[in-house]
Specification:
The chain folds into three domains: 4-63, Nucleic acid-binding proteins (OB fold (Dihydrolipoamide Acetyltransferase, E2P)), CATH 2.40.50.140; 66-134, DNA polymerase, domain 1 (Orthogonal Bundle); 140-204, no CATH class. 50% of the residues lie in helices and 18% in strands. It contains ten helices and five strands, in the order βββαββααααααααα. The protein is elongated. Belongs to the RuvA family. Residues 73-92, 108-127 form the Helix-hairpin-helix DNA-binding motif class domain. InterPro entries: DNA_helicase_Holl-junc_RuvA_I, Hlx-hairpin-Hlx_DNA-bd_motif, NA-bd_OB-fold, RuvA, RuvA_2-like, RuvA_C, RuvA_C_sf.
Length: 205
Amino acid sequence: MIGKLKGLIDSYGEDFVILDVGGVGYQVHCSTRTLQHLPSPGEAAVLSIETYVREDAIKLFGFRTDQEREWFRLLQTVQGVGAKVALAVLGTLAPSDLANAIALRDKAAVARTPGVGPKVAERIVTELKDKAPAFANVDPAVVHLAGAVDEQRAPRPVADAISALVNLGYGQPQAAAAIASASRSAGEGAETAQLIRLGLKELAK
């Protein structure tokens, strides 16, 4: 199996690059984000490779980092997500942003991917929620709170405060982060109005 290729960019296609490795041109399929970050033809590039062997073809998928390749694999463990959809998701969200979106149950961010509807986005977030926090760079308390809200087990004042901030136009992840911080400041038993007031102060910082 091919795990990595190092060579010169020969040319670009709509969703692939031809990488010249010692005179052999490898066609490597990449996300739009990866293609945009690769250098001009004639310049050197290194790609982490995922090799798919089928009865009728061998297909190579290329990634700028091993972490991006790992997410490509993880995404395809979700029902209804194949290589094409996984590449589309990675073309829309960088690996760190994808990890944050899943950790925070931000289905809307995942659903921005062309060809990914709300149902598939929900499956991605639900089925990968236990794996994402390891890659995410958000406060674990916020991840915990986002999960509690998503599963309807957060205290009512907390859930209502987040809902109020969302209704004011803030994104769900922003609102959850602000209310998590507010909850820490106010302590247990804080009322909704107090959490909203403290949450707005956090967002204004």
